[in-house]
Amino acid sequence: MRISDVKVHVLAPKKVAFHGNQYDMTLSLVRVFTDEGLEGNFMLYGNEEARSMARPLKQTLVGLDPFDKEKFFGQYPPVRRRGYWLGNNLLCVIDVCLWDIIAKALKQPIHRLLGTCRDKVLAYASTQHMPRVEDYVETAQECYEQGFRAVKIHPPSTIGKGDWRTDIEVCRAVKQAVGEKMILLHDPVGVYDREQAIRVGRAIEKLGYYTYEDPLPTTDVEGYAELCRSLDIEVLGGEFMTSLYGYTELIRRHATDALRCVMENIGGITPTMKVAHLAEAYGMKCEPHSWGHQLTQAAHFQCMLAMYNNDFFELPVPQGVFDVPAVKDIIRVDKEGYVHAPTKPGLGLEPDLAALEKTTVRVYPEP
After folding, report:
1. Phi and psi for 344 in degrees, rounded to 5?
2. Exposed/middle/buried for 367, CB within 10 Å: 0-12, 13-18, 19+?
3. Contact assessment for residue 216 and residue 190, using Cβ atoms and an 8 Å cutoff
4. CA distances from 346 to 158, 301, 328, 349 (A)
5. What's the CA angle centered on 346, arms 341 and 349, to 5 degrees?
6. Which residues contact 310 (CB under 8 A, 6 or more apart)?
7. Would you say 186 and 232 are in contact if contact means Cβ atoms under 8 Å apart?
8. pLDDT truncated to tens, each residue of the chain (367 aa)?
């Protein structure tokens, strides 16, 4: 089997209400074809990324046997080592598409090839950043009614609608409203300084929050080490790492209690599983981010199903906020708060070719 062609479909912008604002979300569906009729898929954010990556993708992949994936990636250690985001994003697209093709060739979901250890994962509702305390309370209550049994707060200070004191107020109000029936998590996306991070951490620790994610900028390794020494709540870091080697430094410096990773940042399914195994070797949890469009949700989920040391699947709310009609399948929480393993081969989500034709505004690489 050989790869025969690559096409990148830029989709019509989707109107999204997010972080209290309306904006146009532009996604591009990558299609990697083989001479045996199989197709691997992933998505890119943005029009410019599609234009810049389409030709390198085609030039790099055409003629490759998908099963030679590791041989292929062995040619690119400098990109991985230096952690260039664009380079890792390109490698992520390649890695996920090749996994998708390989699993389809073997008629199995990707998680079966990775080593399935469970068939469902508890999901948490990943909130938007909202300006009012009441918005978070209402959202948490709505999520509980939908079946969620865990919710993660992205606080107002992240979008400049308050400060760390407002964030504590939000955490306290959500705890009072749903804290006896939902697991609570807090993620300020790296906006606090060290003093603020300690103050918020101590407050949510007393409130019984489960994890405290990325309170400081990823670059402040010493600050994270100090935070881990000062708090009992689990400190979760690493979402913005762009290299596997960066995680070894976090572990060596005792600068996180668990590892967080984003496969677009580190290069795909293959390095995501390496992060999970690294965490396992040190007795730590690994919590992949699965925030975003259907295909990134699916790719991260396939990894989680092959991890013993993972607690949660992250599902953005409102559910479906990033779904696009060009992909047939969706991931939703059940009435007990779980998402269930896909059974279709590959990623488990298929393109909807009729919808893709209607929503495609441009195809790269251009002739």
Report:
1. -70, 155
2. exposed
3. yes
4. 36, 12, 14, 8
5. 70
6. 121, 276, 285, 286, 287, 288, 304
7. no
8. 999 999 999 999 988 766 566 778 899 999 999 999 999 999 998 888 888 889 888 988 999 999 998 887 776 654 444 444 457 888 899 999 999 999 999 999 999 999 999 999 999 999 999 989 999 999 999 999 999 999 999 999 988 888 999 999 999 999 999 999 999 999 999 999 999 999 999 999 999 999 999 999 999 999 999 999 999 999 999 999 988 889 999 999 999 999 999 999 999 999 999 999 999 999 999 999 999 999 999 999 999 999 999 999 999 999 999 999 999 999 999 999 999 999 999 999 999 999 999 999 999 998 7
Phi-psi group of 259: left, alpha or beta (phi > 0 → left; psi -120 to 50 → alpha; rest → beta): beta
* Phi, psi of 337, rounded to the nearest 5 degrees: 95, 10
Residues with Cβ within 8 Å of residue 181, at least 6 apart in sequence: 144, 149
- Read off the pTM: 0.95
CA atoms within 13 A on the CB side of 319: 19
Domain ranges, ordered by start, for the chain: 3-107+352-364, 111-340
Partner residues linked to 235 by β-bridges: 212
The amino acid occupying position 346 is: G
> What is the CATH T-level fold of the domain 3-107+352-364, as seen in this structure?
Enolase-like; domain 1 (3.30.390)
Report CA-CA distances (Å) from 353 to 18, 40, 158, 357.
28, 14, 38, 6
Burial class (CB in 10 A: 0-12, 13-18, 19+), 70: exposed
CB atoms closer than 10 angstroms to residue 15: 8
User: H or E stretch including 40?
Assistant: strand 39-45
Give the CATH number of domain 111-340.
3.20.20.120
**DSSP readout, 1-20?**
--EEEEEEEEEPPEEEEETT
